[in-house]
UniProtKB/TrEMBL annotation:
SUPFAM superfamilies: ICP-like (SSF141066). This is Proteinase inhibitor I42, chagasin. Signal peptide: none annotated. The keyword Transmembrane helix does not apply. Keywords: Protease inhibitor, Thiol protease inhibitor. GO terms for molecular function: cysteine-type endopeptidase inhibitor activity. The keyword Nuclease does not apply. It comes from the Archaea. Residues 40-126 form the Proteinase inhibitor I42 chagasin domain. InterPro entries: Chagasin-like_sf, Cys_protease_inhibitor_I42, Prot_inh_I42_chagasin. PROSITE patterns: PROKAR_LIPOPROTEIN. It comes from Methanoplanus limicola DSM 2279.
């Protein structure tokens, strides 16, 4: 029993050390971070997570403002089968490779409609040091 606990502790410590050696930090941004400014070191991965409901036709049109786009993915909410009109979460990943100030911005609208002044918007400033 003692050997198992020591082995598990040792493995967990080794994994933590290896993860710390990569030098990559992650900065999460959420809906409540709208309008904020964040400072991150160069090399940081920025993950923006916002609610979205494409079943209604609405989705985010997101712009990384010069940050390197790594990818994006939509995760539908877990709902009972046959549920209509449920949403989920959309995540965008950016890499802060160069020092400077960048603005991530997005607008939540239907792609086929004209942009309107009352469309929901999201924006944050990222200062890469």
């Amino acid at each position: 029993m003692k050997i198992t606990v020591i082995m598990v502790t040792g493995i967990a410590l080794a994994l933590a050390l290896v993860a710390g050696c990569t030098g990559t930090s992650i900065q999460w941004l959420y809906e409540e971070d709208n309008g904020k400014t964040v400072e991150v070191p160069s090399g940081t991965e920025i993950i923006l997570s916002l609610p979205e409901n494409p079943t209604t036709g609405y989705s985010w049109e997101m712009n990384g403002g010069g940050l390197t786009a790594v990818g994006d993915e939509y995760y539908p909410d877990k709902v009972p089968e046959g549920t209509v009109g449920s949403g989920g979460t959309h995540e965008w990943k950016f890499k802060a490779e160069k020092t400077g100030t960048y603005t991530i911005s997005g607008i939540y609208k239907r792609a086929w409609e004209e942009t309107a002044t009352d469309d929901k918007r999201w924006q944050a400033t990222v200062e890469v040091k």
